[in-house]
Amino acid sequence: MIRSVVNGVSIRYDDQGPSDGIPVVLVHGHPFDHTLWAPQVTALTAAGYRVVTPDLRGYGGSEVVPGACLLSDHADDIAALLDTIGLDRVVVGGVSMGGQITMEFQRTHPERVRALVLSDTSPVAETDEGKAFRNALADRLLAEGMGGYADEVIDKMIAPYNVTARPDVAEHVLAMMRGTAPEGAAAALRGRAERPDYRDTLARTSVPVLVVVGADDFYTPVSDARATHRLIPSAELVVIEQAGHLPGAEQPAAFNDALLAFLRTRVAVHG
User: Fold this and answer.
1) What is the pLDDT of residue 155?
2) What are the beta bridge partners of residue 54?
3) Cα separation of 239 and 210, whole Å?
4) Which of 37, 97, 121, 198 is the residue whose CA sits 20 to 30 A from 224?
5) How distant, in Å, are the alpha carbons of 154, 171, 212, 229 from that of 237?
6) How far apart are the C-alpha atoms of 263 and 45, rounded to whole Å?
7) Sequence-ordered list of residues with C-beta below 8 angstroms from that of 222, at least 6 positions apart, any chain
8) Residue ranges per domain, the chain?
9) Boundaries of each AB hydrolase-1 domain copy (predicted)?
10) Whether 234 contacts 208, CB under 8 Å
11) Which pLDDT score, from 0 to 100, does residue 233 have?
């Protein structure tokens, strides 16, 4: 991995594939790291795309910044990282919180966006109940660490049947969650509790958009993905069967097929 200081924070990232390939930035969710995207990096680089996968501040090998980290902080980090490595317009995609960071990036840096990939995420602003939940969870993680939380949510992060059927995936997801610094996870939770509503921004976007969702997603069900799809004139919707909240990890072949088809047919044409 490569390390760069952006916005005063040390960020670690991978930059793989041909330097002249269409650049794709993939943003992990909470509480994971860039390795969540390993199957996508393999498929995309083999197809000739350049793929950048950062560890968000507070996660993986990046610097932990306590307090509260807004989605806009993450989006600004990505913009600064693109400046550092000399990329202008990119395809940017994310899963769950990473999808919300992707929408924030579209809101605040639209001139940098070539296309969007929104996986298992919601554009709706946080509710008062949700704010209380996220702040309480932040307090809990600081007090107890990540282990108990990881064990509690593994069968929501991936479909329960995949915990058994895909033990390699379950172990990877658990390892990422357990390895996340509680201070980083708590800061992201507090910032995410303040997220704005992205529906107006999405409705106005003119770039190609791929909306992906696992058929059995516990957190953002297919009905949410369909609502997001209806907002965006240029969007496509793909439902990944036999997957939950992390279809790129649970069913990588199906996810990669959808992503590559979108890139080939929509992004190259759109420019």
Assistant:
1) 98
2) 13
3) 11
4) 37
5) 26, 29, 6, 6
6) 13
7) 213, 215, 239
8) 2-270
9) 23-247
10) yes
11) 83
